[in-house]
């Protein structure tokens, strides 16, 4: 029997140093568990603050929650899909611009055919194509993916502006209200969000794809030596993210049938903040969580509605979000300061 086994079977054989090490491990584990609960507690606290404030100020909670779900749905769809990208160690800043182009093309098809199902298919297909294009071009030119997405973000934004100018009137493209009126309700938003979340959780936690993405994000060298094709897995991650972007673009058309160059302009940054609020590790790897996007999106939606009760002007809200962003990142770093870098 080794000394380690003897110590485990006989606690009395532990030295003072061993006891100190065990105490530090237990303390670190407890700290990690507490930090892991911060996103859920923050969402609950923000939700309670909004409910109490709305009741005190005489706001209609039914209408308020409809607005919260509408605001959270688009960000959650994009952020949930983007979780696959961040888990595998990549980065994409062109998600908002991608969503705008997908919405414009889908809206034009819907306007021309008056077929809402075809509009949905086109939105998803265009979003997947543009998302995969980022990773393919990065592989072709042998560039880091995040650099290519920065370039493509500007390209997609310019293309969207040109399309609105060419096919729209008064700097906007309008989809007939009769086409989307039946889906402009909370039930549709909840349904599309639940279905996509369940699909992503299945791929992320049940299928091999999720485990391989965590491995790739945690250590790309070891993943390559284990037989994982990083380029193919990255392309698949971007394709899965494209599904979320396409659904978000469709949901945006349903909510606001008039599209302009500023539609969805804040989705990219809101998606990043939502992922951090939800407890997602920006370095990817094994600490990634699929539910982080959902928690973070609703936390932001509660925060937006709570702030709008007392103040007017988006710049107040941006300051608060920035401060909270820094605080959350600081809290999540507490349990990992003594660890080696994962990548």
How is this structure best described in words?
The protein is mainly alpha-helical. Helix content is 76%, strand content 1%. It has helices at 3-9, 16-36, 38-56, 61-87, 95-113, 116-140, 145-167, 177-180, 186-206, 208-218, 220-225, 230-255, 267-277, 292-310, 314-334; strands at residues 173-174, 258-259. It has a two-stranded antiparallel sheet with strand order 1-2. Helix 9 packs across helix 10. The chain starts with a helix and ends in a 9-residue tail after the last helix. Mean pLDDT is 84; it is low at 337-343.
Task: Please give the structural blueprint.
Blueprint lengths: L2 H7 L6 H21 L1 H19 L4 H27 L7 H19 L2 H25 L4 H23 L5 E2 L2 H4 L5 H21 L1 H11 L1 H6 L4 H26 L2 E2 L7 H11 L14 H19 L3 H21 L9
Antiparallel strand pairs: 1-2
């Amino acid at each position: 029997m080794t000394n380690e086994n003897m110590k485990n079977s006989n606690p009395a054989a532990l030295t003072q140093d061993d006891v100190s090490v065990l105490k530090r491990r237990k303390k670190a584990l407890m700290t990690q568990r507490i930090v892991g609960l911060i996103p859920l507690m923050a969402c609950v606290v923000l939700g309670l603050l909004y409910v109490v404030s709305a009741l005190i100020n005489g706001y209609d909670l039914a209408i308020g929650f409809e607005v919260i779900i509408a605001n959270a749905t688009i960000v959650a769809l994009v952020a949930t899909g983007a979780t696959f990208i961040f888990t595998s160690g990549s980065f994409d800043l062109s998600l908002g611009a991608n969503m705008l182009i997908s919405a414009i093309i889908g809206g034009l098809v819907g306007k021309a055919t008056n077929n809402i199902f075809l509009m949905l298919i086109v939105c998803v297909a265009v979003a997947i194509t543009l998302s995969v294009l980022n990773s393919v071009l990065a592989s072709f030119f042998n560039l880091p993916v995040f650099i290519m997405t920065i370039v493509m973000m500007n390209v997609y934004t310019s293309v969207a502006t040109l399309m609105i100018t060419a096919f729209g009137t008064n700097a906007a493209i309008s989809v007939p209200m009769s086409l989307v009126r039946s889906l402009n309700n909370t039930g549709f938003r909840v349904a599309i969000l639940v279905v996509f979340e369940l699909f992503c959780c299945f791929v992320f936690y049940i299928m091999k794809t999720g485990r391989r993405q965590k491995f790739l994000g945690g250590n790309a060298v070891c993943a390559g030596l284990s037989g994982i094709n990083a380029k193919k897995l990255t392309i698949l991650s971007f394709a899965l993210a494209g599904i979320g972007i396409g659904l978000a673009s469709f949901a945006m058309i349903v909510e606001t049938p008039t599209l302009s160059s500023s539609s969805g302009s804040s989705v990219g940054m809101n998606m990043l903040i939502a992922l951090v609020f939800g407890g997602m590790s920006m370095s990817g790897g094994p600490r990634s969580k699929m539910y982080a996007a959902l928690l973070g999106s609703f936390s932001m939606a509660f925060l937006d509605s709570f702030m709008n009760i007392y103040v007017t002007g988006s710049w107040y809200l941006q300051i608060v979000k920035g401060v909270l962003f820094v605080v959350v990142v600081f809290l999540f770093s507490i349990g990992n300061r003594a660890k080696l870098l994962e990548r």
